[in-house]
Amino acid sequence: MPRIQFVTAALLAVAVLPAYGQAHKRFTGGPVTIEDQGSFFVGGVTKVSEYAAVPGAPPGQPTPPRTQQQITIGQMYVQFQIPARIAAPGWPVIMVHGSTHTGAALESTPDEREGWYPYFVRKGVATYVVDQSGRGRSGFDQSVLNEAEALLNAGNRDAAVALLPTLQRITDTGAYLAWFGHLLPAGSTIATGTLVPHGSPEDPQGKGTADEPHVAPLFPMAAVDEYYKQLVPNAEATLPGSTCETCMPQALPPANTWTPQNLALLVERLGGAIVATHSQSGIMGHHMIRILKERGRADLVKGLITIEGGCSFAQSGLTAVDFDAIPYLAIKGDYTATSAQCQESVDGINARRAQGQGTAKAEYMKLDEMGMLGVTHMMMLDSNNLEIADLMLEWAGKNVPRAPRR
């Protein structure tokens, strides 16, 4: 068995002294008075399993006693802050992270600047940040892993493999190559090559063109190693999926099953909210609207913001008609191609509005075409993250009807 060497507390203190021995850096841009803050869970179901806590024993060893135990799965963790001064339009905002991330991506940046969550609160917006169901503080269903291990130890390999979920995640290297730059030379691996950012002299795409220049990412690359620490497995794969008769395809994975359901519950609990999704969670926001529509409560969604995420109405069982009264905003950065789905959805909503069949406006903000170059997929962490936050706040102020006084 390989030996694992642990660092003693004394050595650890020495190791981190240069980083933590410096003067404390202020994360937030200014003071704010909080009326209320806290955390809670929404949703979830109970599950009874004899694998809730104890897996099977390896071959040749006695099987530990197992009994039926109850656990809760599928719940969603929510943290929130409500400022004392509420700004127009007055509705709370729910922020949803993307794949391989948790709500931490919305709290602060890797280089210790203010994140969207505290900034929105400082700007007078009651803000709720979630960890997707099956991810982070929401937990996952470990009984599935325990049962697969028990089947494998019992010699039933085929059944174990069929039960064992695939826990996908975005790797450090994968995140860099998808959003920040390139690996050179071509054909190399992270062990043999070098990572270079967009817009650098080594960029294989060169300087681009006058119309589409390749510029350095606005992500704080000096702190990219701190960012990698945020990345976690998509453990929602341990949860069951579902079906949706009006969706294409009808079989929904766990990610599009539990988080949309819990977002709908949260919107209902708040009595209305603006929902801002990112990347993987983009389609979840659409499924959330479908679920609320089925309950006759789609009117509680006061606005939907989709940041570099899926905008397909057909995939979520919706049509443009369902957004007649829901303001819709799609946003893309500099390194992502224009999404045909997002453009089609925005055009469909606005076509109905032009015909007098809807009142809500849809917009597709292409930040590169607006002259904002270097914005990455992780724009909530970029150096201009608060400038983008202001764009969303301004959009909500213009397009979301004001909340009634309470």
Structural class by SSE content: alpha/beta
Tell me the CATH topology of the largest domain. Rossmann fold
Count of helix runs: 10
On the 0-100 scale, what is the average pLDDT? 92
Largest sheet: 8 strands, mixed
Whole-number radius of gyration? 23 Å
So what's the overall shape? globular
CATH top-level class of the largest domain? Alpha Beta
- Give unreliable regions as ranges: 1-18
**SSE arrangement, N to C:** HEEEEEHEHHHEEHEEHEHEEHEH
Write the layout of secondary structure elements.
Elements: H1 9-20, E1 34-42, E2 45-49, E3 69-73, E4 76-83, E5 93-96, H2 116-122, E6 127-131, H3 142-153, H4 157-163, H5 172-180, E7 181-184, E8 194-197, H6 224-228, E9 242-243, E10 251-252, H7 255-270, E11 273-278, H8 282-294, E12 301-307, E13 328-332, H9 340-354, E14 362-366, H10 385-399
Parallel strand pairs: 5-6, 5-11, 11-12, 12-13, 13-14
Antiparallel strand pairs: 1-4, 2-3, 4-6, 7-8, 9-10
Helix pairs in contact: 3-4, 7-8
Model description:
- The structure is a single chain.
- With 406 residues, the protein is of the alpha/beta class.
- 27% of the residues lie in helices and 17% in strands.
- It folds into two domains: 76-139 and 232-399, Rossmann fold (3-Layer(aba) Sandwich); 172-228, no CATH class.
- An eight-stranded mixed β-sheet has the order 1-4-6-5-11-12-13-14, sandwiched between helices.
- Helix 3 (142-153) runs antiparallel to helix 4 (157-163) and helix 7 (255-270) packs across helix 8.
- The longest helix has 16 residues, at 255-270.
- The chain starts with 8 loop residues before the first helix and ends in a 7-residue tail after the last helix.
- The model is unreliable at 1-18 (pLDDT under 50).
